[in-house]
Backbone:
């Protein structure tokens, strides 16, 4: 009976293609098979270094035109994928059906993407985007916190959950136009204590217009942060 249970735990069914993998004992269980990870989470996608929007491979620019014309408060963004099928379905499954194994996968993959950076330095902090209290009560967990927890464990970086707080409940961003999104999140966040000299890695599930992350970077910089880097699962094209 114990052997059967162990086999079930180690037999992996990919959430994308639903193929059952062979028993694996050399890696942590993952909800995405290697082929689907390669297909949908390629690290080779050319992106704006500032906001991670997809860019043409023919372009020699490192930053998109929007970031050049109107630079955001954050300094860089790393995104695992575009927010398109099937990645959007994975994010929805994490948020609304509590597929926390997907948070583990996203956290580990983000850690791989930034493994060359010295995240263990004392001046680096990992901060998840906080949920409004009402949404946290409804959902029972903050998906960004779950991703950040795994990321911090994988990199050895410090997770600072209580440094950034949401001080004002706001309507969901997806229901608003671009200009309204900026107004919606203005002064919605506050920072506890000084962040002077710190590099802050802000973790979120989806980056759409970037308004929320831009406002967060603004208040982090006001608190003394030297650099703000966004780490997101998916970027809306």
Residues:
């Amino acid at each position: 009976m114990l052997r059967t249970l162990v086999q079930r735990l180690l037999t992996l069914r990919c959430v994308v293609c639903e193929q059952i993998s062979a028993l694996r004992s050399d890696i942590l269980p993952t909800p995405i098979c290697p082929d689907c990870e390669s297909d949908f989470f390629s690290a080779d996608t050319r992106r704006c270094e500032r906001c991670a929007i997809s860019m043409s491979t023919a372009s020699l620019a490192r930053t998109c035109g929007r970031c050049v014309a109107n630079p955001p408060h954050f300094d860089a963004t790393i995104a695992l994928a575009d927010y398109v099928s099937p990645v959007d379905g994975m994010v929805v499954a994490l948020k609304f059906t509590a597929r926390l194994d997907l948070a583990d996968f996203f956290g580990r993959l983000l850690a791989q993407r930034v493994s060359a950076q010295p995240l263990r330095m004392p001046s680096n902090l990992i901060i998840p985007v906080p949920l409004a209290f009402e949404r946290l009560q409804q959902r029972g967990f903050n998906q960004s916190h779950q991703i950040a927890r795994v990321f911090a464990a994988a990199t050895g970086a410090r997770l600072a959950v209580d440094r950034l707080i949401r001080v004002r409940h706001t309507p969901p961003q997806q229901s608003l136009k671009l200009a309204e999104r900026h107004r919606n999140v203005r002064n919605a966040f506050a920072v506890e204590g000084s962040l002077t000299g710190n590099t802050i890695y802000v973790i979120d599930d989806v980056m759409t217009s970037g308004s929320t992350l831009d406002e967060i970077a603004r208040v982090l910089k006001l608190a003394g942060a030297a650099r703000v880097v966004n780490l997101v699962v998916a970027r809306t094209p």
In short: Confidence is low (pLDDT under 50) at residues 3-8, 22-26.
